Amino acid sequence: MNTAIMLREIRRRYVLSQRELAELSGLGKSTIGRLESGECADPTIGTLTRILGSVGLRIAVLHGHGREFVVPGEPVEYRMRDGRRLPAHLRVRPICSMQTPWWGWFRIAWMPDNPRQNPAVPAYTYDWRPDPEVLADPRFGKHKWDAAT
């Protein structure tokens, strides 16, 4: 995406001068001018978000097949009971009962009815990296990491 062409097209469609777009977005007129001239060819995501947001547009991340990648709710920082963070790149789920699969059950001598009563049982657990078959994209019949190579 060429930032200069995109900004000029936005200004044309919304009939805005550089000064008006700068005022709407809270940026300087010189910033808009440098972006449109190509002098600043690689603006930050924050700058683009401010400019696009000022005219009611937004930046979206899309999957390869065009659907928007949506992050549900507010980001949560999951921690073990001792304060260590759980791996951010793996799926995290709460441990609600003894039926919840958790790799540490065999290590605990005391098994309460409610796992939250035992300080050795964490509130959350995570799944190890999924089996490659789980990551296979059924639409294309190949693994996601194969598409990147």
UniProtKB/TrEMBL annotation:
Domain HTH cro/C1-type: 7-62
InterPro entries tied to this protein: Cro/C1-type_HTH, Lambda_DNA-bd_dom_sf
SMART domains: HTH_XRE
Pfam families noted in UniProt: HTH_3
Superkingdom of origin organism: Bacteria
Coiled-coil stretches noted in the UniProt entry, renumbered to this chain: none
Protein name per Swiss-Prot or TrEMBL: Helix-turn-helix domain-containing protein
Organism: Jatrophihabitans cynanchi
